[in-house]
Design brief:
Blueprint: H1 13-25, H2 28-35, H3 39-53, E1 58-61, E2 64-67, H4 69-94, E3 100-105, H5 107-124, E4 129-134, E5 148-149, E6 161-166, E7 169-174, E8 197-198, H6 211-217, E9 230-231, H7 234-242, E10 248-251, H8 252-260, E11 265-266, E12 272-273, E13 278-282, H9 290-307
Parallel strand pairs: 3-4, 3-5, 8-9
Antiparallel strand pairs: 1-2, 5-13, 6-13, 7-10, 7-11, 7-12
Length: about 300
């Protein structure tokens, strides 16, 4: 099979990409998750790579895959080479794609913020071919084929242009029938009720905020009981809140329409604005393409409109 062809060194492109995935993820399991394959397939690829090289690339230290000295030098050179290959392929793919644009966002942002507003963009730019890709990791930002990204967590992407998108405003929300879904609820009343917890895997993206930080902001050093369900998908957290299963931390840009429509209510009047806004990331060269510039500017315009929208 052509996918199995290797260079004269006996090392295939697939083996080298698995190598970098293990380096970035820190373990074979994380690499498999990022690559969409099983951990045994990652182990097999690494064994094949080490067999072709005649020397170990990784050492196993406390359950983590740690590069040997020679492996570190190999990974640095491989990363540089594959990045050059990927740039060449990306440039080829983008040729003649002035009317195409791809936006990479999380599923919650796509569902609760983007979809209700997307008609306005399509009406203004009917000739733009728009693709929306969703995922729950920031690891592919600047690497995949997207033109624009809105990260889930915080990070540094020095090769990408960063534009402030939306402020991060956070407050608790619950279904209208919840006994604490009223304006006078105080923060300390939330120390015991069922709280819906979003569990963030640190290998996929950083956690922007959580209940522990919310309570600390309001002067409570002990962590709330958080006896409610725990979810690794924030979309499911909101679905649980809508179903009356507990209180969720609500990011304003995601819950504002639900609150305005009466599907959720704020729990108390306290909120936190973190000062760490969400951002839109773009490759500087891509912004010269009309479709990318159109979507980028529309996202910032729509966000500006949200910031000046009257509260429900």
């Amino acid at each position: 099979m052509i996918d199995d062809l290797a260079s004269t060194s006996g090392v295939s492109d697939r083996h080298l990409r698995v190598l970098l995935a293990v380096v970035d993820g820190g373990s074979f399991t994380a690499a498999g998750r990022d690559l969409g394959i099983g951990q045994p397939a990652v182990s097999h690829a690494v064994r094949q790579l080490e067999g072709a090289l005649g020397s170990p690339v990784f050492q196993r230290v406390n359950g983590r895959a740690v590069l040997t000295g020679a492996g570190r030098r190999l990974a640095e050179e491989v990363r540089s080479g594959l990045e050059a290959v990927d740039r060449a392929v990306r440039t080829f793919r983008l040729a003649g794609r002035d009317d195409d644009v791809e936006l990479s966002v999380s599923m919650p942002l796509a569902t609760y913020w983007l979809m209700p507003r997307l008609g306005a963009f399509r009406e203004r730019h009917p000739d733009v071919e728009l693709r929306i890709s969703t995922g729950e990791t920031d690891r592919l930002i600047g690497i995949d084929d997207a033109d624009l990204w809105i990260p889930l967590g915080e990070g540094r992407w020095p090769e990408l242009q960063e534009s402030v998108f939306l402020p991060e405003r956070i407050y608790p929300v619950a279904a209208p029938g919840h006994p604490l879904a009223r304006p006078d609820t105080q923060p300390d009343e939330l120390l015991d009720p069922d709280l819906l917890v979003h569990v963030v895997h640190p290998e996929r993206h950083s956690s922007r905020y959580d209940w522990q930080r919310w309570f600390a902001h309001h002067g409570h050093q002990r962590v709330a009981g958080a006896t409610g369900p725990r979810f690794n998908d924030y979309s499911v957290v909101l679905r649980a809140a809508l179903a009356g299963q507990g209180i969720a931390l609500g990011w304003h840009h995601l819950v504002q329409d639900l609150v305005a429509d009466g599907l959720l209510r704020r729990v108390g009047s306290s909120e936190v604005e973190t000062g760490r806004p969400l951002v839109v990331l773009a490759r500087p060269a891509s912004l010269g393409r009309p479709a990318v510039r159109a979507l980028h500017d529309w996202l910032l315009e729509a966000a500006h409109g949200d910031r000046h929208r009257r509260e429900p």
